[in-house]
Design goal:
- The protein is α/β, with parallel strands linked by helices.
- The protein is built from 11 helices and 6 strands.
- The chain has a 6-stranded parallel beta sheet with strand order 3-2-1-4-5-6.
- The model has no long low-confidence stretch (mean pLDDT 94).
Length: 221
C-alpha cells in the first residue's frame, strides 16, 4: 500500500530560488576564462544539481587542481554578485508554498552559506529555518540518496512517505534511489525528458505543485 505523503522535501536552486540560470551563465563565463568552452547544455549536464565538491572534482579532472581552486573561488564570487543584483523566487513558488499545509524542508547540493544568501535574499530563509539540509552534511551528494535520507531521518519521516521537488537529473535520481516519490520541475534549465522516470511526475508550473502533492504525487514503481 502506498503511504500518504507526510513530508515535502524541496531542492533549493531552481526550485525555491531562480538561481540555476545564474549558475549556468557563470559556468559558461568561467569556461571561457579558463580555456574550457562550455555550452549552456554542457554546463547543465556536467554541473547542475551536483555538490560543490563534485563540481570541483569535475573541473580538476579537466583543468587541474590549481585551476579548479581558482575556478571555485571565482564561481562563488560571481554567483553572489549576480544573486545580489536581482535573484527572485521561482515563478509561482510563493503561491505554492502558501497552499501547502504538510511539513516541509530543504535538501540542497549547495552549502549552508550559499543557502543563507540565496534564501535570505528572497525572503525564504526564515520560512525553512531549522529544516535546511546541505550535501556538506553527508558522505555522497546527489545522485546518491544520502542527502534525502538524512533529511527524512532528521525530520522523523519514513522515506516512503516523502515527496521530493527537484529540477535536476541528479536530484530526481537521488530521490528515486532514496525510495521517495519525485516531482520534477521542468520550468527551469533542465528539459522535461531528462527528469522523467519511474516514480516521477514532471510538471512545468510551480502553481500546480499543491495539487500534485494533494493527489499523492505518483505511485512508486
Amino acid at each position: 500500500m502506498i503511504k500518504p505523503i507526510e513530508l515535502v522535501i524541496f531542492d533549493c536552486d531552481g526550485v525555491l530560488v531562480d538561481s540555476e540560470v545564474i549558475a549556468v551563465r557563470v559556468l559558461v563565463r568561467l569556461g571561457e576564462e579558463y580555456g574550457w568552452p562550455l555550452t549552456e547544455a554542457e554546463a547543465i549536464e556536467r554541473f547542475v544539481g551536483r555538490s560543490e565538491a563534485a563540481n570541483r572534482a569535475t573541473v580538476t579532472e579537466r583543468l587541474g587542481g590549481e585551476t579548479a581552486a581558482v575556478w571555485s573561488k571565482r564561481f562563488v564570487e560571481l554567483h553572489a554578485e549576480a544573486v545580489d543584483a536581482g535573484l527572485t523566487p521561482v515563478d509561482g513558488l510563493p503561491e505554492a508554498l502558501a497552499a501547502i499545509t504538510l511539513p516541509t524542508c530543504v535538501a540542497s547540493s549547495g552549502t549552508h552559506e550559499k543557502m543563507r544568501h540565496t534564501l535570505g535574499r528572497t525572503g525564504l530563509h526564515d520560512r525553512f529555518a531549522g529544516r535546511i539540509f546541505s550535501a556538506t552534511e553527508v558522505g555522497r551528494g546527489k545522485p546518491a540518496p544520502d542527502l534525502f535520507l538524512h533529511a527524512a531521518r532528521s525530520m522523523g519521516v519514513d522515506p516512503a512517505a516523502c515527496v521530493v521537488v527537484e529540477d535536476s537529473r541528479p536530484g530526481v535520481e537521488a530521490a528515486r534511489a532514496a525510495g521517495m516519490r519525485a516531482l520534477g520541475y521542468a520550468g527551469g534549465v533542465t528539459a522535461a525528458e531528462r527528469l522523467a522516470g519511474p516514480g516521477t511526475v514532471v510538471f512545468d508550473d510551480m502553481r500546480d505543485l499543491p495539487g500534485l502533492i494533494a493527489a499523492g504525487a505518483v505511485a512508486r514503481g
